[in-house]
Structures are given as C-alpha cells and as structure tokens.
C-alpha cells in the first residue's frame, strides 16, 4: 500500500513540473489600444525567457525584463543594398545587449495578404548573405527563414539554399503551424528529417477556430511534446492578444476580451487555470492571416 501511494505521488510530479518551461517565449507586438496588457507577460513568476516582435529593435515595455530579445529581419526589398539590420544588431551588442539569436525572414513563401513577406528565394539569399550571415562571427546563432507550414514552404527553402550556394549557414530552423496536433508533429518530423543539422524553434503555432476543450487539449499536447523533444529548443504560441481581436478564433487566445488571462494564457506563463472563458467579437469573423499582417505596416519602414 505504501509503495503504491509512493508511486502515485511520483507519477503525479511530472505533470506538475511540466507546467513551466524555459523553452517558452513570446511573439508579441506591444498593444497601442491596451498598453496595460504589455505588463501581463513580465509579471513575477512568468516562465517566459525570450521574445520577438517581428522587428530589429526590442520593445520598450520589456526593457530590463526576464525575456531575452531576439531581433528579426522580417522581409527584404530589391531596392535595398545597405545593412540596416546588421548595423542595428551590432550596435545593440556593442551597447551591452545580450543577443544570442536572430530570426530570418517571416513567411517568405506566403503572400502579403496573409501576412507573408513574399520574397523570391534569390533576393532572400543575397539579403541573408549581406545582413544576417556576418553575425555568425559575433557568436550569434542564426534562424533560417520561417516559411509557412504548407508544402510550398519546403520548396521555397530548397530554392533558398540552392541560391545561397553554401553561403547561408543557419543554426536553427523556425516552424509555423496552424492546425491540429497530429499534423504539427508530422510536419516537424518532416522538417527535422529534411534538415537534420538544425535544431527547431516553433515560432508561431495554434489550432485555429476550435471549441475550448479541443483547443486546450491541443495546447497541452503541444507543450508536452515540445518539452520532451530535445531538438525543439524554443517555442512561442500564437495567442498573446485578446479573444475579441483574435484571428485564430477566441478560444486560442491567451487573454479574454477584457484582458484577463485564459486557462491557456495562465498555463503558458507557468500558472494554474483561471477558468476565464474567452469570447469573440459579436458578428465579426476575422479572416485568419497570422499576426504578421497586423505588423506589416509597422515593419515595412524598417527594411526599405
Ligand atoms: C545571455 O542569454 C543566454 C540565453 O540565451 C544565457 O545563456 C546567457 O547566460 C546570457 N548572458 C548574460 C551575460 O546574461
Ligand atoms: C544546414 O543544412 C543546409 C541545407 O543542407 C545548409 O545549406 C546549411 O548551411 C547547414 N547549416 C550549417 C550550420 O551547416
Ligand atoms: C538531435 O538529437 C539527436 C539525438 O538526441 C542528436 O544526436 C542530434 O545532434 C540533434 N541534432 C541537433 C541539430 O542538435
Ligand atoms: C491541460 O493541462 C492542465 C494542467 O496543466 C490540466 O489541468 C487540464 O485539465 C488539461 N486540460 C486538458 C483538456 O487536457
């Protein structure tokens, strides 16, 4: 009897421990409409260790926080020949910032109507060689272009590496996924099989437009899987916004329409269920486009 009780006690431990993870980060653009939402992610006890905002420069509300900033070169333009991204990251480092990683292009195989940066592989390769590859010498780890989860992503990446002709050497490969858990695990398996020399970051993922229990089940299965897989080193769930503006459906959001943490939001930060039920905006059905669409206008001026 004693033994059985002891075993049960041990069996319960992992699920408690697994509710926090140092792999977790935040994909988030500070809220102009609800600036107090920015503070939620850096509250005491939050387990988030890193963040990105689709841009070069850190977000002001997170200055001095526990989250390490990861700069991103969102897109590329064929009229640009300078090195604004490289210069920015170098100056952040010389100013004392701890920059360990950078992220390459956001959904370059995707169209701008769905938030993609829509860059041809040859332009991406030449821009990478000029703006990103030199950071390797400074000890910064480089993230490959973050293609969409569709088959065109694999084709685009293959073309990118062909155009690079051996001059692009990413250390890790970001993955985006919008769909169910089985599809995501299979997709990540395919990415790892195709690029065995890189670790994986899942930098945008969610199950869009599902009911609450299905969404929470997806969230739990995904976290457990990412935490268990040694070669998945970082992940950032796509849900750090209010449910009434969510374009992945209200149940996927970290915040309710009133800015309170949902169960998923609280679990992601390492907390317990809040039982706050997210609601959508009445009569408004958002077209799914990834968060990047919201920041396209803001990001654009950064790379022209
Ligand atoms: C910089 O960040 C990395 C994690 O990405 C951490 O391991 C390292 O200790 C940090 N260095 C300093 C000086 O804070
Ligand atoms: C990883 O593999 C790709 C594709 O084969 C290659 O182009 C890239 O340079 C490799 N990365 C490193 C760090 O060797
Ligand atoms: C992935 O994991 C395997 C086994 O744990 C390891 O041998 C391999 O080096 C890892 N790959 C990378 C890119 O870290
Ligand atoms: C998800 O995990 C939490 C613990 O982290 C648990 O309380 C909850 O019941 C789980 N929900 C589902 C639907 O599996």
UniProtKB/TrEMBL annotation:
Residues 1-18 form the signal peptide. Gene3D superfamilies: Glycosidases. GO terms for cellular component: fungal-type cell wall. It comes from the Eukaryota. Pfam families: Glyco_hydro_cc. Residues 25-268 form the Asl1-like glycosyl hydrolase catalytic domain. GO terms for biological process: fungal-type cell wall polysaccharide metabolic process. Transmembrane segments: none annotated. It comes from Glonium stellatum. This is Asl1-like glycosyl hydrolase catalytic domain-containing protein. Keywords: Signal. PANTHER family: ALKALI-SENSITIVE LINKAGE PROTEIN 1.
